[in-house]
Amino acid sequence: MIRCVTSAFRRFRDDEDGSMVVPFALWLPVFTALMISGIELGAVSARSTALERALDQTVRDIRLGTGTVYDHDSIKAAICDRAEILPDCSQTLRLEMVRLNIRDWSDPDPVIQCIDTAEEVQPVVSFEYGRENELMMLRACFKYQPISPATGLGSALSTDAAGYSVLVAKAAFVQEPI
C-alpha cells in the first residue's frame, strides 16, 4: 500500500503538465495593467494634442483679427468644434483670458480654475478681450474621466473628488491691429 502511494506521489511530482499555469497567473495582472496603462497614455496624449491644436488654431483666428469680435462662448465653441475627440467638451471646458502687461510684468495666477462638476452654475472666470497690440494669454482647462481610474497609469493621474482628471493648454498672443 505504501509503495503504491509513494509511486503515485513520485509520478505526480515528476509530471510537468500544467507547469505554466502558475507563472501565467502571476504575470497576467502585470501585463494587463501595462496594456491598460498604454491605452490610457494614448488617450491622454490624443486628448492633450487635440486640445492644444484646437486652442492654437482658435488663437490664430483671434490674433489675425479678421474684424470679428470674439466672446467667451464663441471661442469655446470654436475650440470644441476643432477638438472633436474631447467628450462633452462644451460642458467640461473652461476658458480664462487675461491681459498681460509687458512693461509692468507680473506672473498670471498659477492656479487654473476648472469646471467643478458638483456645481450647477458655472460662472465665467476672468475673460478680458484685448485691444490692439495687447499681450493676451488664453488658458483652457478640460476635465475628463480616465478610462480605468483604478489601474496602472489611470491610478497615477491626479483626480478630483468626482474622479475627473485635468488637461491644461495655454496660448499667448498679441492682438493684431485691424
State the helicity in percent bands. 40-55%
Beta content comes to 15-25%
User: Helical region count?
Assistant: 5
N→C terminal distance: 103 Å
Please, what is the average pLDDT?
81
Extract low-pLDDT stretches. Answer: 118-123
Strand-pairing-aware structural class:
alpha+beta
Task: Give a structural overview.
- The structure is a single chain.
- By secondary structure, the chain is α+β, with helices and mostly antiparallel strands.
- Helix content is 43%, strand content 16%.
- The protein is built from five helices and three strands.
- It has helices spanning 2-14, 21-64, 72-82, 89-92, 152-156, and strands at 93-100, 135-144, 165-174.
- The chain has a three-stranded antiparallel sheet.
- This is Flp pilus assembly protein TadG.
- Keywords: Membrane, Transmembrane, Transmembrane helix.
- It comes from Roseivivax isoporae LMG 25204.
- The chain crosses the membrane at residues 20-43.
Helix-strand blueprint:
Layout: H1 2-14, H2 21-64, H3 72-82, H4 89-92, E1 93-100, E2 135-144, H5 152-156, E3 165-174
Helix pairs in contact: 2-3
